[in-house]
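quick one: arginine bound model?
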Amino acid sequence: MTGTKPSSRVQVRQNRDFMADPLSLLARRLSPAFAAVAGGEVDPVVRPSEHADAQVNGALALAKKLGKQPREVVAQVLDIAGDMSDMCTDLQVAGPGFVNVVFAEKFLAEQVHVAMASEALGVAAAPVKRKYVVDYSAPNVAKEMHVGHLRSTIIGDALVRMLTFVGHIVVRENHIGDWGTPFGMLIEHLVDLGEADAAHELGVGDLDGFYKEARRKFEADDVFKERARARVVALQGGDPDTLRLWKTLVNESTKYFNHVYGLLDVLLTDDDLAGESKYNTLLPQVVDRLAKLGMLVESDGAEVVFPAGFTNREGDPLPLIIRKGDGGYNYATTDLACVIDRVENIGAEASLYVVGAPQAQHLQMIESVSRTAGWLSDDADMVHVAFGSVLGADRKMLKSRSGDAVKLASLLEEAVDRANRAITEKNPEMADDQRAQVAKMIGIGAVKYSDLSSDRVKDYVFDWDRMLSFEGNTAPYLQYAHARICSIFRRAGVERESVRHVVPTLDAPQERSLALRLLQFDAAVWDAIDKYSPHRLCTYLYDLASDFTSFYEHCPVLRAESDSMRNSRLFLCDSTARVMNAGLAVLGIRSPEMM
Ligand code: ARG
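yep, here:
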């Protein structure tokens, strides 16, 4: 997979009209001076700093290239840059030759004022709008969704929202497993149960029980096995009655999936279904086109492609099986057809596959074949947004007490129950119907946030107590910061909108830090998008909540010394709540106004 191209980010940053992020602005401001000294474009390398607001490190690498002393290069750059006092109060050359920068209060105040006046709260729109297909969730028909599907659904949905937020065109695709040989036995089991009973079993979400019973019969009973085989042939041959039974299985399963999506509060609907069966008619074309390109070879009776550079443990080339000896197609064939469909029919410029890490090699082989075949051009991205496993307290794969796969619907219901109990403890006066609503936002928010807030490629431990805690990097802590601000305005009887015209004063260090943080929402969203890593945005929101907490501890708001100070602080409160609300929203998490 190509992943993100490092250069795209720099371009994105430099093409924007308005930038809230002060670090990017500083880089843009210093760029011409660096270019003049370097005799060509160089990155000023502006980074956050522990000692100041920012650090400019670009002179170090440049000095090496020019064979000069870094401090000499810095002096030249700053000389050419000239008066920067409108932006920074202090530019200190330090260490071997980096510059510590402290931004001017007035600059920060004006920036935050302008940023918060924009609908996107300072987050720059994508300068080039691209069409993204996001492939996510993708459970299998007549099988319980497992926690891997939960992760895919949560991460994929957050990515869809983030990309949409900056203006990209996003097509959601739910590539459900709704085709293949297991449908022979599943349909025969359906016939045995009778359609009504089978529909009931699937409708209440006992997908695993259904699947296991079908498999058990398939293995134990030769007559059943024969029926299942004949049924696969009928299904592939398009026999109308078989197709109708198949459709029943698909419909009952998607009903259950929709129930889970509803609980999870994600964007997926039936319109987003693009299951494996959708590509059936394209499969012969895949074979044809590969054959015409001379890429198809015969190996052990099957038709395969050998993508360059893939070998097995013995060092032999690894085949991607396109058509098996019996004429049947594979998961891989479907995925190749899917690439063709996305590029040629949908017009996708980038496809994100939000799929567990174990499918990395499969997807790499699909990409390799698609590129060689010319179905994916050089500027089309195909990215595997991989993720690790969800572990139980014992650090093994999360299982239910009986050892079976965890039922997602009951897991989510438990989250809401637990949140309900937590709020009852915190706020016993809340009315029942309101508590029920808030419990949903907090319980589901907690599950989503605990998934999104850790680096997606790593495994994480599913821990009820931690995810529902009102302390630490959790959804309830962030939601609480938001609700608290709403309550400040309620207590004061002040309309939130009424303070939005204010240009704040940033005298206290906590006011200044909070303003600086608000301005970094822009960079945080872009950072999360660039790396397809929602946890980067989570970290930002957590820092924002922490900065708000210390601001609120040190700076009286409603009892401020003067009206103008009170308004300035109310502006910072309102801005924090808006950024928190928008940030959580792009992660797919709601912010209650009371909790
Ligand atoms: N249904 C598959 C599974 O449960 C995931 C499909 C992912 N998407 C794809 N285009 N292969 O493992």
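The chain is about 55% helix and 10% strand.
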